[in-house]
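Table S2 (continued). Query chain:
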Amino acid sequence: QVQLVESGGGLVQAGGSLRLSCAASGRTISSTAMAWFRQAPGKEHEFVATISGSGVVTYYADSAQGRFTISRNSAKNTLYLQMNSLKPEDTAVYYCAARGSSTAARYRDRYDYWGQGTQVTVSS
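Corresponding output:
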């Protein structure tokens, strides 16, 4: 019912910035909570940030707090992740996710729809 496509990943030096986008098609995401997760090769999935359906409530992983900002534009049916002060340990495939509820959540199993991921590589 919902298709998600991430974009904006790439190669950046430590200290640099990237903005990831997640475009949704099918049903709109105006009332659904969304999130960003990431996974490095051979590593477990890691929560990054989530935002409520209203866009008012956000939560961040400790590793992202103060450096990353999650936002949404319901009119464009798009989710964003602004990443500043990037570190090599931020290197991973970043995934966009959506759930049927409007309540922001930190856990992977709460999400029903996933994008294909976009690679972020931070060099030192």
